[in-house]
Structure formats: structure tokens, C-alpha cells
Amino acid sequence: MADKNFVDGKSVLIVDDEPDVLESLEELLSMCDVTKASNFEDAKRLMESKDFDIAILDIMGVDGYELLKIAKAKKIIPVMLTAHALSPESTVKSYKEGAALYVPKDKMAEITTYLEDVLEAREKGKSTWWRWLERFGSYYDKKFETDWRYRDKDFWKGFPYL
Questions:
Q1: What gap in Å lies between CA 85 and CA 17, rounded to an integer?
Q2: Which residues make Cβ contacts (< 8 Å) with residue 94, sequence separation at least 6?
Q3: Domains of the chain
Q4: How far apart, in whole angstroms, are the C-alpha atoms of residue 116 and residue 112?
Q5: Which of 159, 120, 112 has the alpha carbon at shortest distance from 137?
Q6: Contacts of 118 (CB under 8 A, 6+ apart)
Q7: Distance CA 118, CA 101 (A)
Q8: How far apart are CA 124 and CA 32, in angstroms?
Q9: What is the per-residue pLDDT across 107-155, written as a single tens digit (0 to 9) for each?
Q10: Average of pLDDT values for 155-161?
Q11: Is the distance from CB of 39 to CB of 62 less than 8 angstroms?
């Protein structure tokens, strides 16, 4: 990637019901203007009253898919981050419902890289999922067996690649 840092100075809302996840992400995204919410109501209120570039949304515990709809309506880039709802089916659902990316929580240490991918893709007019298989394909192979893509062949056949 070029020397350009797409994430610096972005306004990011992090929504998760686990305080340690909120703290970790805030540290990882120290180059951003971070706001945290630990429940659906606070996140909804914040999205309706402040401008954010990106919203990192947990799925379980905070009604992440409902927050995804609000983020999209407010033109906030929604990134799903999950542990409990981690599955190929949830990945497909997130994609189809308009998430910019779907990140497993055990990969959140690299959140800056993933947000860079999303922002770079948007600047270049590419799908924000362009590097998803490169970043997470082998992780999914280990976690869900190598045939996980065959359960929804039509979807993955048309999935964006580099």
C-alpha cells in the first residue's frame, strides 16, 4: 500500500458490550477520534447526534444488524466485529445487508489494517470486501473446515477479489 494513511484522524464509533474490547479497540485506534458505546440505545443516540466516518459494530449483545441499518442511513461506514456470531452465514448476511467488512474478534489486533483496506477501496471505487478472502480465507478454512464456501457456492462465486 502507498504511504497514505487513510485511518488517521477518522471519527470512529465502537459499539460492543464487552468493556475490554472497547478499551482494546480504543488503544489500537489511538490515531482516530474514538467514541465508545456499550449498548444499542447509546450507539443509536450517538449515531443520530454526531458525525462518524466509521462504526465498528458488535453483532451479539448490542443488536448489531439494527445498528448496521442506522449506520448505512447516516452514511457511516459500518464494520461488523464479532466472536459469538462468527460464521460463514453471518459473514454473508453482513455483506448482503451492507456492511463494509466483517472481522472476527480474534483478528481485531489488526483492525487498523482492515480499516485501511476499506478506506483505500472506497477511494479507488472498489468493493470494500476486496481483500477479505486474502485476510480471512485461511482463518475460515481452519475454523470452519475447507468446504465452508461450498455451502453458498453462488454467493462466493460472485464475491469480490483483488
A1: 14
A2: 59, 65, 68, 80, 102
A3: 11-130 (3.40.50.2300)
A4: 6
A5: 159
A6: 54, 77, 79, 100, 101, 128
A7: 7
A8: 21
A9: 999 999 999 999 999 999 999 999 999 999 999 999 988 788 888 888 8
A10: 83
A11: yes
